[in-house]
Amino acid sequence: MDDEEVHARVPADIEAPDRIVWGLTARQVAILGAAAVLGYLILKSVGRVLPLPAVAILLIPFAGVAVALALGRRDGLPLDAWLWAAIMHRRTPRRAAPAPEGATRAPVWAPAVAADRPPPAVLRLPADAIGDDGVIDLGEGGATVLVAATTVNVGLRTGAEQAALVGSYARWLNSLTGPVQVVVSAQRVDLTSHAMRVADAAHSLPHPALADAALDYSDFLLDVAARRDPLWRTVTIAHTAPGERGAAAEAMRRAEHTAATLSTLGAQTRVLDGATAAAVLTAAVDPYQYTDASWPRTPVHQPVIGPRFAEELSP
Questions:
Q1: Helix and strand totals (H; E) in the chain
Q2: Which of 122, 124, 160, 218 makes an SS bond possible with 198, Cβ 3.0 to 4.6 Å?
Q3: Neighbouring C-alpha atoms within 13 Å toward the C-beta of 155
Q4: C-alpha to C-alpha distance for 214 and 236, rounded to whole angstroms
């Protein structure tokens, strides 16, 4: 019995919307119903002026678009969701500036912006601040706390151990009382800098054999970095508590509960403090490191100045 594999049925359409009539969802019925009403109004308005074949030629493209929006899907999303996302993307400003006091005019030394291009909008971030304890203040939206966890190898466990792990994970899912987001991401591993640190530390080892082994290990890391693209996987769990009062304490309590529960599965967990949470969010927004980018980059602490202003600063 210990070697028996654990099988669990997970329905593939667990989040599928309900079918209300003729196998169609409420969204599809609403789209087709609205298209039918508009088609009827067009028929009544132009049917007395144009012949029936001309009206049919006029309504066939309209009906085809309505059916495609209602029944079509791409990458698991309906086409009307794609259309709405395209409209919102088109209406969203392409440039945003962190200016809580409001957007101001560009300085005289800045490059001129074409008249047909809209001015930059104010950058609205979902978070207001990150505390030293790791609590991310969402303003009126509540607070969020991040938990970092490692993965657990289930394939090398016996059947009984797999069943125990699945059962423990299911109990954690059933204990959740608020929204939780689990993010699994893969990032590049900088083996070159690690190999350089190993090579520098090899000269301080007390025995020549240890130094030779460290140098060989450094060469191995450099060879792996040159031949392959190593990645490392991170698991981040975000706990969000709504409300203004007590949201920080509630989010921290949920995060500590998750860290303690998942640690019983064999995973290494830690509630992230302020500095680590800021680093995780920074890597999520810009995953490229300075050595990964193929274009020149300006560090955060270095100001960006224009040619005319640079001439004024020069002695």
A1: 9, 12
A2: 218
A3: 1
A4: 33
Going residue by residue through the chain (315 aa), what tens digit of pLDDT does each one get? 455 566 666 666 666 777 777 778 888 888 888 888 888 888 888 877 778 788 788 888 888 888 888 888 887 778 888 888 888 888 777 777 777 666 667 677 766 666 666 667 777 778 888 888 889 988 777 889 999 998 888 877 788 888 888 888 888 888 888 888 998 887 777 788 888 888 888 888 888 888 899 899 999 988 888 888 788 788 899 999 887 778 888 999 999 999 999 998 888 899 999 888 888 888 777 655 555 555 566 665 666 665 554 555 555
Collapsing DSSP states into helix, strand and coil, what is residue 155? coil
In terms of Cβ atoms closer than 10 Å to its own Cβ (0-12, 13-18, 19+), residue 186 is exposed
3-state DSSP assignment of residue 193: helix
Bridge partners (DSSP) listed for residue 149: 235, 269
Q: What is the distance, to the nearest Å, from the Cα of residue 210 to the centroid of all Cα atoms in its chain?
A: 43
Distance between CA atoms of residues 61 and 42, nearest Å: 13
Residue 77 burial (CB count, 10 A):
11
Enclosing H/E stretch for 25? strand 24-25
Please write down the long-range contacts of 152-157, taking CB distance under 8 Å and 24 or more positions apart: 152/265, 152/266, 152/267
Residues in the chain: 315
Q: How far apart are CA 229 and CA 217, in angstroms?
A: 18
- Whether pTM > 0.90 for this model: the answer is no
Alpha carbon distance 180, 145 (integer Å): 10
Q: Tally Cβ neighbours within 10 Å of residue 150.
A: 14
* Residue 218 and residue 199 in contact, taking contact as beta carbons nearer than 8 Å: yes
Which helix (H) or strand (E) segment holds residue 224: the answer is: helix 208-227
